[in-house]
Design goal:
Layout: H1 6-13, E1 34-38, E2 43-47, E3 50-51, E4 54-58, H2 63-69, E5 73-75, H3 82-87, E6 91-96, H4 110-127, E7 133-138, H5 148-168, E8 174-179, H6 185-192, E9 199-202, H7 210-216, E10 223-227, H8 249-263, E11 270-275, H9 300-310, E12 320-330, E13 341-343, E14 347-355, E15 363-370, E16 393-397, E17 400-404, E18 410-419, E19 425-435
Parallel strand pairs: 4-5, 4-11, 5-6, 6-7, 7-8, 8-9, 9-10, 10-11, 13-19
Antiparallel strand pairs: 1-2, 2-3, 12-14, 14-17, 15-18, 16-17, 18-19
Helix pairs in contact: 4-5, 8-9
Length: 438
């Protein structure tokens, strides 16, 4: 975490005090007070006495763009980002790291569990009076891939952590973040983790049925959607050689909008959401989950969130990928949209269906990369990037390009990036398989 500004540091020196005869704690001067209250229809969150609905993003970069798009909060995956967010008038759903069984953390080891608890206690004591703090998030998908027995141990340990945090800091709610709500997770949380104020749910394609899923498990507390975005790589069709097929950026953006309207907006028990990912990362591909390209260009999902947050499109919109998406065929042969298996070393004729809703001229860039979308990593674990293959693009003009398949057989992916003059973008890609010789 960056050091606080001098004014904030002075404010944070004021220690919370217990008033004699009064059963509550006053926040330090300048700190926020966040409460969740039951209403006639559901729940409402307030911040410093005023209604507050989280219009948030996952990630702590591009905060000026976030403010311009109508967002008001960020979610971090560790105890960072408070100062930067506070300078922009944003709040933070602050991550508190917890060990994951899939990474080898043993919740049956009392010494490790105790050490983790003390580390989190120290973090909460240090940061609880920061004015940008909205609430605490215990872990991220801590239970993912855990056995049934380990998952119950996780819930019980998180409950002890939640109880501790609520004693130290009664002014900010505590949640944990789960990887979807399958396996009756909400019912398990009700039984084994009752100290939570709410639950954070990461959901992608399942967003369109999330309210019904929550109701079926009879969850009686509020929720936040702590990650949502495009269809996940586990939710899409695959090629005949087992590679997930990524949606284009316009198809993704349409899902962002529908998902928000379906599972977040006007849901009486929802306290807000955090869209994934306000930035860019390598996860299966370098374009799958990022709402920006690596060069910083915003994609269609930024437009979609601006619309749902503000009620209007941005003044200049990103180009859009049309229904034809991308066509790839071997030079001189008929397109094969189903197989896309080509001889090694052959030349491919590629075209993209794209337009700009503002009528601006568009330019298209192309590249070819080794396809690593079958990487078995889970839960957003780090994946190494895959750079473009030098010399693969033989020519490009307008919406078309000629790309050479490498001589080495294997899995590859053709990418197109469509730009308008303002640097806003759209993207689409197609996996291909190189076999044999030309």
């Amino acid at each position: 975490m960056h050091q606080c500004s001098s004014a904030a540091a002075i404010a944070m020196i004021v220690v919370a005090v217990l008033l004699p005869g009064v059963g509550h704690v006053l926040a330090a001067e300048g700190a926020s007070v966040v409460k969740i209250a039951r209403t006639g229809k559901g729940y409402q969150m307030t911040r410093n006495g005023q209604p507050y609905f989280a219009r948030g993003v996952c990630g702590g970069s591009r905060l000026d763009e976030l403010v311009a798009a109508g967002g008001n909060s960020i979610r971090t995956y560790g105890p960072t980002g408070l100062d930067a967010a506070g300078e922009k008038g944003l709040t933070v759903l602050l991550g508190l790291n917890t060990g994951k069984p899939r990474h080898g953390f043993d919740y049956g080891d009392a010494r490790r569990v105790s050490a983790q608890k003390e580390s989190i206690r120290q973090t909460v004591l240090r940061l609880k009076d920061h004015p940008a703090l909205l609430m605490w998030a215990l872990g991220n998908e801590t239970e993912l891939d855990a056995s049934d027995a380990d998952r119950i141990r996780v819930w019980k340990a998180l409950n002890e952590l939640a109880e501790m945090i609520r004693q130290i800091d009664p002014n900010h709610p505590v949640i944990t973040v789960v990887a979807g709500i399958g396996r009756n997770k909400l019912a398990e949380l009700k039984e084994h983790c009752p100290a939570l104020d709410a639950v954070g749910i990461n959901a992608y394609g399942g967003m369109l049925s999330l309210p019904e899923q929550i109701a079926r498990q009879q969850w009686d507390k509020p929720y936040l959607v702590t990650e949502f975005g495009p269809r996940g790589h586990w939710e899409v069709p695959k090629t005949t050689w087992g590679i997930p097929i990524e949606d284009d950026s316009t198809t993704k953006a349409d899902l962002y909008e529908r998902a928000y309207r379906r599972a977040v907006a006007d849901q009486p028990s929802c306290l807000g959401s955090y869209v994934f990912l306000w930035g860019q990362k390598q996860e299966k591909t370098h374009t799958w989950y990022g709402m920006f390209l690596p060069d910083g260009s915003p994609l269609n999902a930024v437009d979609a969130m601006t619309l749902v947050w503000t009620g209007k499109w941005p003044a200049n919109r990103c180009p859009r990928i049309g229904p034809g998406a991308m066509k790839v065929s071997r030079r001189g042969a008929a397109p094969d949209e189903k197989q896309r298996i080509f001889p090694s070393g052959s030349h491919l004729e590629c075209s993209v269906d794209a337009e700009d809703p503002d009528g601006d001229a568009i330019t298209v860039k192309w590249d070819l990369r080794i396809d690593v979308a079958d990487n078995p990593s889970r839960g957003g674990d780090r994946e190494p990037p895959t750079p473009p293959i030098e010399g693969a693009v033989l020519s490009a003009a307008g919406k078309e390009a000629v790309i050479q398949v490498p001589a080495k057989p294997g899995k590859y992916r053709v990418f197109a990036y469509v730009y308008d003059p303002q640097g806003r973008a759209a993207t689409v890609n197609v996996p291909i398989l190189a076999q044999g010789q030309p």
